Amino acid sequence: MLAATVSVLGIVAMPALGAHGVLGAAGLVAGSVVHCVGEGAFNPVSLTLRQTRTPPELLGRVSAVQRFLLWGAVALGSLLASATTAFAGLEATVWAGALGTVLCLPALLRRGIRGAALASAR
User: Fold this and answer.
1) Which residues touch 23 (CB under 8 Å, ≥6 apart)?
2) Is the pLDDT of residue 18 over 90?
3) Number of domain units in the chain
4) Could you tell me what percent of the chain has a pLDDT over 90?
């Protein structure tokens, strides 16, 4: 949960620090670094959780569904981002993406996910 929050904070920092000039460029770099640190910690943890909590006979299916949803979201997000940029501009698109990313955090707060993570840690 902490790693995912750090990742999301990095994405939100990008538009929050400004979109213009030196401060905007510094915000983009700093936000990217923070996002990558959080993502770098979150990905192995989520993979380990999936592999330890999934029955062996279902692991291939779970991995396939996860990849399908992830790569499908990237394609749909790119299409949505291009449409939003065309209609509302780049700054609004970056804000929409940042705020949309925040929506992943409530899913991680579900009790079943936290319980599974704690059980795997033991």
Assistant:
1) 17
2) no
3) 1
4) 38
Which region holds residue 18: left if phi is over 0, alpha if psi is between -120 and 50, else beta?
Answer: left
Q: Which two tokens stand for residue 9?
A: 């904070």
Say how far apart CA 34 and CA 42 lie, in whole Å.
12
User: How would you class 31 by CB atoms within 10 Å of its CB: exposed for 0-12, middle for 13-18, buried for 19 or more?
Assistant: buried
pTM given for the model = 0.75
Cβ(21)–Cβ(92) below 8 Å: no
DSSP string, 24-70: HHHHHHHHHHHHHHHHHHHHHHHHHHHHHHS-GGGHHHHHHHHHHHH
Token output for 79: 């299409």
Residue ranges making up the domain that contains 13: 2-121
Q: Which long-range contacts (CB under 8 A, 24 or more apart) does 90-95 make?
A: 90/19, 91/15, 91/19, 94/14, 94/15, 94/19, 95/15
Whole-number Å distance between alpha carbons of 53 and 75: 28
Higher pLDDT, 21 or 122: 21
